[in-house]
Amino acid sequence: MNLLFEIAWTHVTTRIRQTLVGILGVAIGVGFTIMIAGLMEGSQRDFIRQLIDTLPHVTVSDERRSASTQPAEREYAAVQVTNLPAVDRREGIKNPNTVVASIESWLPGAISPSEQTTALIHYVGGHVGVTVTGIDPRRELKVSKLASQMQQGQVDDLFRASNAVIVGEALAQKIGAQVRSTVTISVGEAHSLAATVVGIFRSGVHQIDDTQVFALLRTAQVLSGQPGGINQLRLRLDDAVAAKDVAGRIEAQTGYKSVSWQEANANLLSAFTVRAFVMLTVMAAMLFTSCFATYNIISTITHEKRHDIAIMKSLGMREAFVRGIFIVEAAIMGAVGIMAGWGLGYLLCYGLSRITFFNPLSGEIINVPIYWTPTHYAAVGALSLIACAAAAFFPARKATRVHPVEIIRGAA
Amino acid sequence: MTTTVIQTVGLVRRVEGAISNVLVNGIDLSVSKGEFLAITGPSGSGKSSLLYLLGLLDGPTEGEIFVGGQATSGLTESEKADLRLKTCGFVFQFHFLLPEFTALDNVLLPMRTLGRLSMPDMRTKALALLTSLGLAEQVDKRPNQLSGGQRQRVALARALANDPAIIVADEPTGNLDTASTEQVFGVLRDIASQGRTVIVVTHDPGLAARADRRIQIVDGKIAQETWLSKERPAVEPSPSGPVESS
Burial level of A173, CB count in 10 A (0-12/13-18/19+)? Predict the structure, then answer.
């Protein structure tokens, strides 16, 4: 066996208590860092997954990002047009079928055209402002999780009654409606119709459950007074991450405002960036703290071994060689500590993932979300090993720099 | 014909501090192959400092040390370490054996650092060394299982491991009883008679009297030089370059 490694190995194996403390320090640091990483990333991914599941990946609306310009303005730079009278144009996406077909020709996912309008719903509990979204149930099932969110009834039940609607659970509670209740929905004073509740859904997002009503496309078109009108296209992609690019492409192609889920939740996602930074800081602090155990132990060992250091140097061992002994000792403790820390981290994550708690908002029993990935183990392990070697380097350098004569004189 | 193994010219070692302290103050000395040199002197006279300089463990503030004719002042710490490994064997008052290693492993340490021999050859040689010092039974014992005299003999075996030209011993018998002292001293004598240079710092006038030459250091200078058993070399070696005198 290599002499340097043999001396290091002999030191760590003959000073079991110190070695164990060093290993424990590293293991605790690594274990808890892995746990925090799993927890933070788990909760973040869980949140994003819910977001992606609940909301369309891309929403194309009949709005434009900037006001339209006049032909003269486009032709001549000097032209300024002011005080244009409002023109009552037909709302909605023009030639929706053509637009849908052209997007569908390349889209990696599904698209559902809908007509959305705001309305009032009247029932025993009073009038409540709602969003009525007219959908094609067959297409809708491909872009949303509505089918799995149904608490009572089914999405297809929209076909079973004339003017059938599916309402959010919180909304149903608020107005006191149940399945088979007949409610009145009105838009302004012109359009009003009696509708039958055929289903109740719960998305888990309170804002949606509180205000959302689904109806058939033509029901919504009647309410908005736009027969055949489509003012929203909702898309679900095979790869949710691609939403940003897809939205950009659609906007370039059609000119209509296309909002990806990333854009819609930009503030949340930027909060995640801050959160990731906080997480990394906490993890670094934990690893740093655990390194102090290594630093402390190597300092102690080098102090106790100063006679050995002196004699090894006087025998003709080079300073770097003697220093290497202590760095290897730290690396041995670090390596064992990291492996123990992996085990500890796994157990902590497992224990946490078994904890369930009641979410009073959604009324669901949920698990602590943990993200399992070997990347965490590898990254934390590699960082710890480097940190251990660095933590050993400084006391080892200090100790091996001392002139052997000083120690030999002191011992005599 | 005498070969100079180690030679110093105007050797000065100062320690800078609140009060500048001169440990070694202008020593010119040359030691021949096979010579047993005893350095004596009162405590604090600078005899150990001189010894550490001669063993290249410490560096002079002024002056030059030639080992085998080679000037050493320009060497880096690592080069000095290499030179120590090959040419100097140390024995101190305290044995300084590595406590976790057996007697055999301790003797193997300098050999393995040098790496000149194969592992089986190193073992054979280390065992032979320990046996020659009467430690055949103790090879697998750790230092704490050995007596003071045995430990010091293991330390001697370790000093001899790489066949160094010079053995440097600082009060090697300082912690030993009379019988062990006699034993260790006898070994040092034998080493010298085998043609190696032995330089010993000692307080014991009886031991110093049995050296080939005794120098007494007072205030960092050679106060007295006494040739005891060998004739003083006819010609003083010149202070520069490879030196040979007869």
Answer: middle
pLDDT at A363: 65
Residue in B9, B58, B1 with CA at minimum distance from that of residue B33: B1
Residue of chain A whose Cα is closest to the Cα of B46: A409
Work out the angle between the directed axes of helices A306-315 and A404-411 (0-180°, nearest 10).
Answer: 120
In what order do the strands lie in the sheet containing B88-91? B88-91, B166-170, B197-201, B36-40, B213-218, B221-227
Cα separation of B125 and B131, whole Å?
Answer: 10
The two structure tokens encoding residue B69: 């004719």
Cβ neighbours for B30, distance < 8 A, ≥ 6 positions apart? B4, B6, B7, B8, B236, B237, B243
β-strands A258-260, A58-61: how paired? Answer: antiparallel
Nearest-by-Cβ selection for A315 from B58, B113, B171: B113
- Using the Cβ of A403 and the Cβ atoms of chain B, whether some distance falls under 8 Å is answered with yes
Q: Decide if B92 and A408 are in contact by the 8 Å CB cutoff.
A: yes
Cβ-nearest to B81 among A10, A308, A316? A316
From B171, which residue of chain A is nearest by alpha-carbon distance?
A412
Q: Where are the alpha helices (DSSP H) in B74-209?
A: 77-87, 103-114, 119-132, 148-160, 178-193, 205-208
Element (H, E) at A341: helix A319-354
User: One-letter amino acid identity for A74?
Assistant: R
B163 reaches A (C-beta below 8 A): no
Place of tokens 């050999």: B111
Tens digit of each residue's pLDDT (9 = 90 or more) over B67-126: 988 899 888 888 988 999 999 999 988 888 999 999 999 999 999 999 889 999 999 999
Predicted ipTM of the assembly: 0.84
**Chain A neighbours among B 22-61 (CB < 8 Å)?**
48, 52, 55, 57-58
- Which letter, b or e, does each residue of B73-102 get, where b requires 16 or more Cβ atoms within 10 Å of its Cβ? eebeeeebbbbbbbbbbbbbbbbbbbebbb
pTM over 0.90: no
Query: Any chain A CB within 8 A of the CB of B96?
Result: yes
User: What integer pLDDT is reported at residue B20 of this predicted model?
Assistant: 65
Report pLDDT for B125.
Answer: 93
Tokens of A79: 């032209």
Q: Does B233 have pLDDT greater than 60?
A: no
Q: Radius of gyration (Cα) for chain B, nearest Å?
A: 18
- Coil, helix or strand at residue A56: coil
Ranking A290-294, A387-391, B33-37 by mean pLDDT, the lowest is: A290-294
